[in-house]
Amino acid sequence: MTKGLKSKICEYLANHYYLNLATISPEGRPMAHTMAYVSESEIVYLATNKNTRKVQNIMQNPQVAFTVDEDDPDWFNMQALQVEGKASIVADENEMREVGEIMAAKFPVIADLPPDPDTIMIKIEPETVYYLDYSIEFGHRDNITY
Questions:
Q1: How far apart are CA 12 and CA 57, in angstroms?
Q2: pLDDT for the residue numbered 72
Q3: Chain mean position to CA 143
Q4: I need a surface site. Which of 11, 48, 122, 127 has the fewest CB within 10 A?
Q5: Please, where are the H alpha helices in the chain?
Q6: Which domains does the chain have, with CATH numbers?
Q7: What are 132's strand-pairing partners?
């Protein structure tokens, strides 16, 4: 089941575009951020301005959570991911270049944007992932720890 669940998680991440990222402010207040993302297996990458609140929050506390889901009113067919993980700023130039290519392939609109020296890449490595699939049974979820 573990290998099958990992495959389902990777496929789900690859076939969606946006996530809802939760961070904690230095004052302990939760914040939610809607973000476009790309994934490489179960690892998620986000591009953002280095001066954003989410970056400031991650620098203070790298523990984050996010959801990826469908916007479907049918509760009995809901599928979604709930992920708890650790965020970091990508510093490796090769990794940034590779992820940039993946991002440009998934979001072609960014190819025409001029380079922004204030843009950084955030990497989120999962610690626990819950895969919700209410088509199996209402409230059904499987989980895996990485």
A1: 27
A2: 84
A3: 16
A4: 11
A5: 2-14, 53-60, 93-106
A6: 2-145 (2.30.110.10)
A7: 80, 141
The predicted-structure confidence for 40-59, as pLDDT tens digits, reads as follows 999 999 999 999 999 999 99
For the chain, the average pLDDT equals 94
Res 68: pLDDT: 98
| pLDDT class of 1 with cuts at 50, 70, 90 | low
Amino acid at 122: I
For 82, residues 6+ apart whose C-beta sits below 8 A from its C-beta are 65, 67, 129, 130, 132, 141
Degrees (nearest 5) of the Cα angle 140, 35, 55? 115
User: Measured between alpha carbons, how far is 37 from 107 in angstroms, rounded to an integer?
Assistant: 9
What is the Cα–Cα distance from 129 to 132, expressed in whole angstroms?
Answer: 10
- The predicted-structure confidence for 69-91, as pLDDT tens digits, reads as follows 988 899 999 999 999 999 999 99
Residue 30 parent element (H or E)? strand 30-36
Largest CA distance in the chain: 48
Q: Which amino acid is at 54?
A: K
DSSP 18: E
pLDDT of residue 115: 84
Region of 51 on the Ramachandran plot (φ > 0 left; ψ -120 to 50 alpha; else beta): alpha
